[in-house]
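S1.2 Input.
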Amino acid sequence: ARMDNGTNSASPPGPLGFAKQAFLDFCRLEKGLGALTVEAYRRDLDRLEAWYAQHGVGLPGSPAAVREYLD
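S1.3 Output.
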């Protein structure tokens, strides 16, 4: 279920799990970012997580893997 604070409590944890949620909470609570921005960050991280899984990249990844993802 989507919460009013811009996070999605029902999303599966995935490999980034708590680190991803902690980052999103930091963005929302400490940086004061809006719900739509935090949601966009969540989607970006979900896509990165899926790309890592598809390409067999283990966490935490590497700068080279991130560059490949961004290209």
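S1.4 Remarks. Helices lie at 17-29, 35-54, 63-70.
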